[in-house]
Amino acid sequence: GEFDWNEFTQAKIIGSFYWGYIWSQIPGGRVAETLGASEVVGISMLIAAILNLVLPAAADHDYTTLIAVRILLGLAEGATFPALQVLMANWAPPQERSWLLTLVFMGSKFGIIIAYPTAAALIKIWGWKATFYVPSIVTLFWCVLWKSIVSNTPNEFRWITQYEKNYIAASIGDTVR
Which end of the chain has less neighbouring CB within 10 Å, N or C? Predict the structure, then answer.
């Protein structure tokens, strides 16, 4: 390939994402509880998109730079799943929560199913760097949509009816926080 990295170096590069990911799980959930889950998810994904854009340049520079970027990428993305849990706790009535969480987290698995053939097509058409640029650009658009649509609680959401707010509030009661 393009890079002369032995198996040990490749393993360090692949694993480095998780070195960051593991450290932002608990803080990500706590920050989501205090500052707002939609902000944590949105900012995490924005940072991840930006880091993904610079990842090919980091790889071209040297593998230690690539490892550093992947650690930062893991730190950014590690906060998303705990923040989504907080978001669902604020929105989903307890009797519907497990079903809704299943749908939300199933989306990440569905994304993997879509990503592999899409990555293969991108590599064939534009080369390996496109597998970072294209998803990053899509994620940047997603961040704009997320910021304009998602809110932390039903009370903050502008397109919800009073009936829906009352239903969610009555269902959740004191179960949140």
Answer: N
